[in-house]
Amino acid sequence: MENNNLKRGIGMTAALSTVMGTVIGAGVFFKTASVVNSTHSFSLTILAWIVGGLLTICAGLTVSELAAAIPKTGGAIKYLDYTYGPTTGFAMGWAQILVYYPANIAAESIIFATQLINLFHLNASLNVPIAIISAFSILFVNLLGAKVTGYFQTTTLILKLVPIALISIVGLMTPGNVNISLFPATPTNGANPFFAFSAGLLATMFAYDGWIGICDVAGEIKNPKKNLPKAIILGLSFITIIYTLINFVFLKTLPLDQIAGNQNAAAEAAMKIFGELGGKLVTIGILISVYGSINGYTLSGMRIPYAMGVSDTLPFSKYFVKLTKKTAVPYVAGLFQVAIAVIMIFLGTFDLLTDMLVFVMWIFNCLLFIAVFKLRIKNPEMIRPYKVPWYPIIPAIALIGGGFILVETLITQFNLALIGMLLTLISYPIYYFHKYQINK
Fold first, then answer.
1. Helices (runs of H) and strands (runs of E) counted in the chain
2. Around 34, how many Cα atoms within 13 Å sit in the side-chain half-sphere?
3. Residue 427: which of 308, 302, 335, 307 has the closest Cα?
4. Are 83 and 376 in contact (CB under 8 A)?
5. Which of 82, 173, 251, 397 is exposed most, by the fewest CB atoms within 10 A?
6. What pTM was estimated for this model as a whole?
7. Beta-carbon neighbour count of residue 419 at 10 Å?
8. Sign of the CA dihedral 398, 402, 408, 411?
9. Cis (ω within 30 of 0) for the bond into 193?
10. What element of type H or E holds 294?
């Protein structure tokens, strides 16, 4: 469906690993603190994770129709470009280049460095240097080629599932330290249950984020029309089950007040379950999980400026299309992405970066959901190897959920949302200036 020099070296296993490996990272272990801080309730916390998973599955099922019909490297950018025109596709690509992928890499690198320092009792001043080293080390792995990176992603996924499985299985079998009850579903701090649940659901969105990145490497997936939607659907279903189980264990192991706002809650829960030594070993597994997540974002993210460079829609496009000779990896795009991430490492914090990227990307997610409706009406003859089930119910649920996320963020974090929108809107003058330069 497209003509480029990227190699189709990513099979079904690696594709599934990229979905799960990218999504399962810092979020499952460190966003729990934000969710509980918002809900102050066992039942509302579990409900937020379940609803967040179901919403993400609906989103994945919906976008999979576009991914199977338009399996191009560049993923969602190409879907928006096809549906709304080049300016909308460019705006999303710009937001991904400037905010989404660098912010993810920076946030995950920050949390990796923080946990490494806590585990080995290192000097806190090493936080930034360790975060930068972790980001660049993953870039080096990616420069070895898509096949090597796919194997690396699969390996880290298997290794990261070990602590998750241990915490979930052993934690479920171990008597809890906390009395848990599903009812009444009210926050212990007296907050309004609806608003508490809404804030908790919003906090889960980063933990479930990353699934759409597999669309960005569609041009390198073997048999993408079959493997792409399958990887998204299976991956998100497994992740929802995993997240619900592991959060149930956290809540039965530690009191709500000890989890709320505590980014070391996962490590503390592991030590409660396995003892000091076992807890440290599980924490190492958590570090591997975060490291693998950085790899997933780096793998997907560097393909965005490359794809935009191929279509010559980005300033300095001729540099972004440069590939390594032996492995055909867009190395300039990768270096550019990590450079922005390093700036964010210096300027941002984990929660600040993750909240901003979630808001910005859900703007475009909603446009993607609308695109499914629009193309069904506009192009009914379009070849669709996969169609979203129970149309139009599933896409409608995804769109309503996406709208809720945007409105909730605007109400609760207006300044953050405004910064994200302004960074995105800059794309329009950049696009027209570059177009003017080409036609000059």
1. 21, 0
2. 22
3. 308
4. no
5. 173
6. 0.82
7. 16
8. negative
9. no
10. helix 265-301
Write the CB contacts of 425 (distance below 8 Å, at least 6 apart in sequence).
91
- Token pair 């003058």 is found at 429
Locate 103 and state its tokens. Answer: 């912010």
Integer CA distances (angstroms), 117 to 113, 126, 271, in order:
6, 8, 17
CA–CA dist 397, 399 (Å, integer)? 5
Higher-pLDDT residue of 48 and 145 is 48
What pLDDT is attached to residue 35?
Answer: 93
Phi and psi (nearest 5°) for 221? -95, 135
The percentage of residues in the chain with a pLDDT greater than 90, rounded to a whole number, is 32
- Tokens, residue 382: 């379009």
Q: Is the peptide bond before 395 cis (omega within 30 degrees of 0)?
A: no
Q: 186: which 2 tokens? A: 């009210």
Whole-angstrom Cα distance, residue 295 to residue 24? 12
> What is the sign of the dihedral through the CA atoms of 150, 223, 235 and 263?
positive
Residue 10: phi and psi, rounded to 5, are -100, 110
Q: Which residue bears the tokens 């980063």?
A: 206
Q: How many CB atoms neighbour CB 87 within 10 A?
A: 15
